[in-house]
């Protein structure tokens, strides 16, 4: 794993939080969170992908608070989280058979479907577009919150816009402090990177954002190939060139070149690699990540946060395999290493 495993680090950080700032996700905490949502406040909650910064998706003032807290551009659409497919008709005006097929195969789970919006959906959620992103998360705390609330919860990742997504409640507190009154705790996120986004609002299914549900699995359900996004595709979360980024400049380096790159830097280097720290090579911190895609993804954002906290001059990340199983991870790393 790493010289400080992300799971262990997250657990220690959470324990260190003052009790007054933590909300264990029991029935009482869910009731508190639901009351906050109905009052137009923000609630951070765990999902299987990352922690979300939630607001009542039908309340324009509450949705505006998400954008203010994150520093998010107003034209950047949000994903609405639902408790059940039965709620789809209240958010989308056209639900194609392809959407029902994907929902049946992958919901609850880390997949977002982009559909034509219902006329009642507010512009703040859609970024002014004629589409809306919808998903049903599988995390039990998220499900309990959504079921108790009864409506849609707009929930982008609970971090400052463009920065590393949070995969623990402690990460959320690091980002926002007391600005978010309720932070429901649900342990480290199981998937660790954001959902796969599939656009079904046009003539052909389009993969807007890769995730840990692979392209081939989606195409097998649909029976057709997914298109790549074009100039007329809807805007969606995570499509900007620079995103998921540490504050420390980040560079992707091939495995064979990594040791030389670290040795050559004029300053302090921090490293995320799939290989062990070479003896004698000096760096501020070296984290050895899991070798499998699921493990790498689960630990990715915690590892990047740990390296960012070192305040090195540069973070080097070893490139990952160019295979389908690693496509979502390559996407996140490429955006994290692109200057804003």
Main pleated sheet: 11 strands, mixed
State the low-pLDDT regions, or none: 1-21
**The CATH topology of the largest domain:** DHBP synthase
Radius of gyration: 20 Å
Quote the distance from N terminus to C terminus.
Answer: 30 Å
Which second-level CATH architecture of the largest domain applies?
Answer: Alpha-Beta Complex
State the CATH class of the largest domain.
Answer: Alpha Beta
Q: Estimate the helix proportion, in percent.
A: 25-40%
Work out the count of structural domains: 2
* Tally of DSSP β-strands: 15
Determine the number of helices (DSSP H or I, runs of at least 4 residues). 11
Mean pLDDT over the residues: 91
Strand content: 15-25%
Query: Which structural category fits the helices and strands?
Result: alpha/beta
Global outline:
globular
Element order: H for helix, E for strand: HEHEEHEEHEHEHEHEEEHEHEEHEH
* Name of the CATH homologous superfamily of the largest domain: DHBP synthase
What would your notes on this structure say?
This protein is α/β, with parallel strands linked by helices. The chain folds into 2 domains: 6-222, DHBP synthase; 250-336, Threonylcarbamoyl-AMP synthase, C-terminal domain (Rossmann fold, 3-Layer(aba) Sandwich), CATH 3.40.50.11030. It is built from 11 helices and 15 strands. The protein has helices spanning 6-16, 27-38, 60-70, 97-106, 123-126, 140-149, 169-176, 215-222, 255-264, 293-308, 327-336, and strands spanning 23-24, 43-45, 52-56, 79-81, 92-94, 111-117, 131-135, 153-154, 182-185, 196-199, 206-209, 250-253, 269-273, 285-288, 314-318. Strands 1, 2, 3, 4, 5, 6, 7, 8, 9, 10 and 11 form an 11-stranded mixed β-sheet that branches. The protein has a 4-stranded parallel β-sheet with strand order 12-15-13-14. It is globular and about 60 Å long. The two termini are 30 Å apart.
